[in-house]
Amino acid sequence: MLMDFARPDNLIYTNLGMGLPLDQQLRAAGRPDLFAAAAIIQCYHERGSDELVHRAFKDFGFEQLPFHRFVANAAFYYVMMLSFVLFELFKRRVCAPVIPVTVYASSLRRRLIDMAAKIVRHGGRVILKVPRAVYEHLNFERLWQNTAAAG
After folding, report:
1. Is 108 a member of any domain?
2. I need a surface site. Which of 17, 45, 95, 143 has the fewest CB within 10 A?
């Protein structure tokens, strides 16, 4: 158990504001606000958000590659990476108004794909029948329109 007086402290050491070329580049990019201590601390607090992409990729695919040879695993990894990018695009273009874009792949599968539905053919048309509760909860009409508009 840690007592309040025994908590670890953090030290942020930076060379911002020392007149180096990086300072000129930040000013040219319109970001002189990054020289303030509060902005540096804010950037430090946001450092974990970069890891969320890796977590989302792990949730989408898996860590252990299936093949014994490097070339096959490399090809598999690149296809998985491309699939992940397409999945993220699908979330933003189609699912965004109904399901938050921050959900992971397993959550999207549970909400959108793992549902009861029936595909029937009637009058020369193919119809997807979903329960009314699912239709209303997912705002299925909006999802369907977004799917048609994304293509």
Report:
1. yes
2. 45
**DSSP, res 120:** E
Tell me how far apart the alpha carbons of residues 90 and 96 are, in angstroms, rounded to a whole number.
9
CA separation for the pair 50, 11 (Å, rounded): 21
125 confidence band (pLDDT: 50, 70, 90)? very high
Of 40-54, 74-88, 97-111, the range with the highest mean pLDDT is 74-88
Q: Which of 51, 48, 80 is nearest to 63 (CA)?
A: 80
Domain hosting residue 15, numbered range:
8-50
Structure tokens at 109: 């599968």
- Average pLDDT along the chain: 86
User: Both tokens of residue 56?
Assistant: 């989302």
Are the C-beta atoms of 26 and 16 separated by less than 8 Å?
yes
Looking at residue 13, its pLDDT comes to: 82
Question: What whole-number distance in Å separates Cα of residue 72 and Cα of residue 93?
Answer: 31
Q: Which of 69, 87, 90, 89 is nearest to 79 (CA)?
A: 87
Note whether residue 56 is domain-resident. Answer: no
CA distances from 98 to 121, 136, 146 (A): 28, 11, 11
